[in-house]
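We treat protein structure as text, and this decision shapes the records that our systems exchange. Such a record has a labelled line for the sequence and another for the C-alpha cells. The record that follows is passed on verbatim for readers who wish to inspect the format:
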Amino acid sequence: MHICMLTDYFLPHMLGGTEKAVYELGKQLVRKGCNVTVVTLNTDRAEDHSQIEGMNIYRLPAISVTELIGAQLTLSPLALFKVHRIVNRVRPDIIHAHNLYFQLTMVAPFIKRLTSVPLVTTLHLPKMVYNRILLDSSINAYQRLVGNLIIRSSDRVIAVSRSVMKHAIADLGVPLSKVAFIPNGVDMQAFSPCKQEPSNTVVTYVGRLIENKGPQYLVEAGLDILKNHPEAHIYIIGDGPLKEKLLQKVASQKLGDRIHILGSVPDILPILRMTTVFVRPSLTGEAISLAILEAMACGLPVVASNVEGNIEIVENGVNGCLVPPANSEALAEAIEFLLSNREAARAMGENARKTAERSYDWEKIAEQTLEVYASLT
C-alpha cells in the first residue's frame, strides 16, 4: 500500500507533536511494508527531496509568517499545484492529511477531487478556546468554512484522543460512523527507563514555550521547590515567544544555575533518562501529549494539569499527579511530594510505563491505522 502523508512541518523541523506523530507513524508503516511519501513545507532550508527511515520526503518552498502574526503559520503559495503534481507522480492508494489547521490539509479536498484518491484526515487538536474574542471568532469561522469542507471531503477522520473525538462529533459535525479513535503513541524501544536510578534530582518540562502550555507556572513553582529542595535542577526544553521572558525571570531570581532553559535539543532522551519528575502544566485542553507519553515510557511519574487530554493518560495517584491549571502553588506541592517520597514516585513511574505499553505503542497504532486505510481500498 502506498500512503501519501500531508503535514506542514516535518524533519528537520520537529518542534511539535504533529510532525513527531507523522514521523513515528510513517516509520512503522514502512516497517510493515508500506510505501510512504511525506509532502511538507520547507521551513528549515532543507533539501527539496530526501529519504528518511525509508520515507520519501518532498519539501515545498514556503514562507514563515510566524513572527509577523505571533502564531505559528507557514505558507506555500503554490501548494495546490505542487501537491497535485507529486500525487500524480507517486500515485498513492491513500492521502493522509494531518492537522485541521495546516495549509496542506486545506488543499487536500481539492487534491482528492482532482485525483479521486481516498482521503483520511487526522485531527490532532481538541476544541481550542483562548478566551480572546477576535482569536476565538477567527477559529470558529475557519472551522465553519474551511474545516467543514475538509471534514465533508474526508472519507475517514481519525481523532487522536477522546477529547478530540468529542470535538469532532459535537463541533465539527463528523458522523460517528466516519470517525475512528486512534491515539498517538510512543516508540517503546527508543524510550525506556534508565537501568540505574539517576543520582541527581531533576524536574523536566518539554513543550512549546507559549502561554497555553504553562511553562511560566513551572518557573514560578520552581522558586518554592528550590527552597525546600536546593539540590534540585529544573530543565525547560523547547522554544517559543515566552523564552526571553522566562530567561529574564530566572535571571532576576539569580537561579540560572538551577533552572535551565535550554531551548530545543536534538535528542531529549538523555535528559529524560536523568529526570526524576516530568511536568506538563497546560492551561487548556490538548490532545494526547507525545511529550507525556515519552516521559511515561521512560518510567517517569508525571505532574500534569487536569485538562482534557492529560486526564486520559494521567491517573491521579496511580501513574502521576493531576493539579488545577494556572496554579503554581498546587504544581509545586505535587512536584515536592514526588521529590520527597521516592518510593511513591518510583511506583507511579512503573505504572506510567505499563500505561504506555498497554495503550500507546506505535506498532499497535500503525496496525489500527492500516485497518482504516484497508476499509477505503
